[in-house]
Design a protein that fits this description.
315 residues; alpha/beta; 13 helices; 14% strand; globular; binds flavin mononucleotide
């Protein structure tokens, strides 16, 4: 199975819906994290990204960040009432301000807290739980020590991004430590990290034959056709790819305009996407360097369309 990675700021419902209208291959998306909050119920505005009416395309598993059991239980039950039978728990976020509060990957250094949270939460939630984790926060042994605890509970899957929190998103993947984890885990494992093309996917597949589930994140944003490439489905010509990309990006732009109040916000968001989209093109850096300084929405559209008329697809 192919999963769309949660990428806060990128793979929100607008992206997921538009993507699904133009590209095939993703089976399930994990939503970017929703933080746990106080209260007897979670406000609908806090759940905007996962409200069923906003998610008509790809199947979504909502992801939550935090550990306070009462908040976890309320969130899980409210999501269940919205129709979500599955829920994903974020034990991977490396952002220092979050990790310092024992949330995301910061929690991986607190095995006893993970155990306590699971013991209190699991009996009181109706959803199937899965976990998205790193190898640790401070070192690559933390998850190894937690896996025996996870083996004793029902989990839909364990998703591992084989880095530690201190690495943030850079540096080598630690595939040896990942291998140790899969040896001792009795759960289904989903791999996440640096899959940017068919070759690397194939290498991973040969090295870890037991893994059948893969998550695509930055690689997908850098090549929107990546699921198709991995599944080896359709053989698009570069011209076809360019047409699909152009239609996709215009649709994404239109959807963003509907939801963002100020042009500035729409433009900023499009520029953030272009940090990745540019990698699809031979002259990607050049167009990005032009687009990033444009402050006028009409001009941004004109320059983008002009570029796409004769752009050369690299992937
Ligand atoms: C900008 C950004 C935002 C991310 N947001 C989340 C998130 O909300 N929840 C999560 O579990 N992982 C998050 N991740 C981690 C990704 O889901 C993924 O595990 C990681 O980027 C490695 O995979 P990739 O190389 O395929 O992107 C984020 C990563 C990036 C770069």
């Amino acid at each position: 199975m192919l999963y769309l990675a949660p990428l806060q700021g990128y793979t929100d419902y607008i992206f997921r819906n538009v993507y699904n209208n133009f590209f095939e291959g993703i089976d399930v998306a994990i939503s970017p994290f929703v933080t746990l909050v106080e209260g007897k119920h979670v406000k609908r505005s806090h759940l905007k990204d996962v409200l069923p009416e906003n998610n008509s395309g790809i199947k979504v598993i909502p992801q939550v960040l935090g550990y306070l059991p009462d908040q976890f239980i309320v969130m899980a039950n409210d999501l269940y009432d919205l129709g979500y039978e599955s829920l994903n728990w974020n034990l991977g976020c490396p952002v220092p301000s979050i990790a310092r509060k024992k949330r995301g990957s910061g929690m991986l250094s607190h095995l006893e807290l993970i155990e306590k949270t699971l013991n209190e939460v699991l009996p009181k939630i109706p959803n199937k739980l899965s976990i998205k984790a790193r190898l640790g926060y401070l070192n690559n042994k933390e998850l190894l020590n937690i896996i025996p605890i996870l083996n004793s509970i029902p989990l839909e899957f364990l998703n591992i991004h084989p880095r530690i929190g201190l690495q943030m998103y850079e540096g080598e993947l630690d595939l040896e430590a990942f291998c140790e984890c899969i040896k001792i885990s009795n759960h289904k494992i989903v791999f996440s990290g640096d899959i940017i093309d068919f070759n690397f996917y194939n290498e991973l597949k040969s090295r870890f034959p037991s893994i059948k589930d893969w998550m695509l994140g930055r690689g997908l944003l850098s090549n929107l056709f990546l699921p198709n490439e991995i599944l080896q489905k359709k053989n698009y010509s570069k011209t076809e790819k360019l047409i699909i990309f152009s239609d996709f990006i215009n649709a994404l732009f239109e959807e963003l305009k509907k939801t963002k109040t100020a042009d500035k916000h729409v433009l900023n968001k499009m520029k953030e996407y272009w940090v990745y989209f540019k990698r699809m093109f031979v002259d990607g850096d050049e167009i990005f360097n032009t687009l990033k300084y444009i402050q006028d929405i009409e001009r941004f559209t004109d320059i983008t369309n002009e570029f796409l008329e004769s752009a050369e697809i690299r992937v």
